[in-house]
Amino acid sequence: MKHIATIILCSSALLMACRGGNDDAELGHHHHNHSHEAGHSHSHEGHTHAGEEAVEAPGGHDEGEIVLMPDMARRFGVEVDTLAAAPMVSSVRATGVVLDAADGSAVVSAPAAGIVRFAKGISPGAVVRAGSTVAMLDTRGVAGGDANAAAKAAFDAARREYERLEPLHADRLVTDDVYNAARAAYESARAAYSSSAAGGRVAAPITGTLTSLSVAQGQYVEAGAPIAVMSAATRLLLRVDVPERLRSRIAAADGVNIRVPGSEEIVTLAARRVASAPAVSASMPGYVPVYFEFDNDGSVAPGSALDAWLTSAGSGEAVLSVPRTAIAEQQGGYFVYVRTGDETYEKLPVRLGASDGMRVVIASGLKGGERVVTRGVTAVRLAETSGVVPEGHSHNH
Question: What phi and psi values does residue 14 have, to the nearest 5 degrees?
Fold first, then answer.
């Protein structure tokens, strides 16, 4: 009996050691202690189940604290910066549109009337060289025939008559009136005939990229109609439309931040302002357009609409500001997360002020000196709301 009792006591001690040896909770789980008495009750003080509000056990963390272990914070890229007042550039939020520079675009026009047959490989995005064939014009089957062919016939006839009368006029065998009439007919026929359109070939006027096709394959066009648009711009224009009520703040603007189309990334555009505050735009009444020129690196395309922030470097007032990545929005309110210990965080409500697109002024809610989470906010937010049981922990006791 003594040996049996010893075995039972050893087994019980081993079982208790295993149960007490759980690893620290990972993302989204607070520390808590399990005490398993005889009879094994599921009423665990300080124990959090999925979907329940987190309440710490006695001797654990304070209620309301968010726990994220340091190794998990590193894994999810959590970064913290100490908040301090510093000058911030003045900014004006507006909308912008990217335009081709005037000397960087061209229209491919039809030299004669006919049905368009695009050359092989011609489509938006294709790069073509100046003088290369973009399309051919087919005049067969078109009512009235080939107008340019008729113009050529008239030109040839007028030229022959003019050349016949020219030596006769020199010998005074025809009157000036007859000679002048033949010469006028010749000049008129020559103006009506286009040698470049004789073959129906449509050539690219510049070397560049086809940005759009203005007609469809097989469509009939009149002479001079646009067939395609090309761009060879190495420089682009950004037009920023600022509300008229903010006109007084335009003069100091010397830079611009933009939101890259298709993403949440904000970048400072390396642009040069090319126009001072002009009059109100005729195309957008109530707005004042401001223009910037920048290198075409392919990140934005002509015609792109984007959010923009005009900035002015002046000696800005020292304010408390955080990166946009530090702001969390929940149910219409704004919050930041502050690290209060090696593994603890706190969520604080804030009121936001002005923004230059990259940083946001904290109008109230922080006083400076706080260690604010600037990156990895989503990980801390999940730690606040998640009820996932950490790996190696089970409720099936």
Answer: -65, -40
Instruction: Say if CB 84 and CB 369 are below 8 A apart.
Output: yes
pLDDT tens digits for range 251-306: 778 888 888 777 777 888 887 787 655 666 656 778 888 888 888 776 777 778 88
Report yes or no: 270 and 246 within 8 Å, Cβ to Cβ. Answer: no
Compute the radius of gyration of the chain from its Cα atoms. Answer: 38
CA distance 256 to 242: 12
Point out which residues pair with 241 in neighbouring strands.
Answer: 95, 289
Residue in 234, 228, 233, 232 with CA at minimum distance from that of residue 207: 232
State the first-to-last Cα distance of the chain, in angstroms, to the nearest integer: 29
- CB contact at 8 A, 80 and 282: no
User: How far apart, in whole angstroms, are the C-alpha atoms of residue 383 and residue 282?
Assistant: 52
- How many residues in total does the chain contain? 397
Contact of 116 with 227, CB cutoff 8 Å: yes
Angstrom distance (rounded) from CA 201 to CA 181: 33
- Kindly provide the residue ranges of all beta strands, DSSP E only, lying in 199-320, ordered along the sequence: 201-203, 208-213, 220-221, 226-231, 235-243, 255-259, 266-269, 271-273, 287-295, 305-312, 318-319
Report d(CA 365, CA 387) in Å as an integer.
Answer: 28
Interhelix angle for 147-170 vs 176-192, to 10°? 150
* Residue 121 φ/ψ region, left for φ over 0, alpha for ψ in the -120 to 50 degree band, beta for the rest: left
386: closest CA among 49, 61, 24? Answer: 49
| Burial letters 339-362, b for 16+ CB under 10 A, else e | beeebebbbeebebebbbbbbbbb
Q: pLDDT for 76-114, tens place per residue?
A: 999 999 999 887 777 788 888 888 766 667 889 888 788
To the nearest whole number, what is the mean pLDDT of the chain?
A: 74
H or E element, residue 93: strand 90-100
Of 281, 288, 285, 282, nearest to 250 by C-alpha is: 288
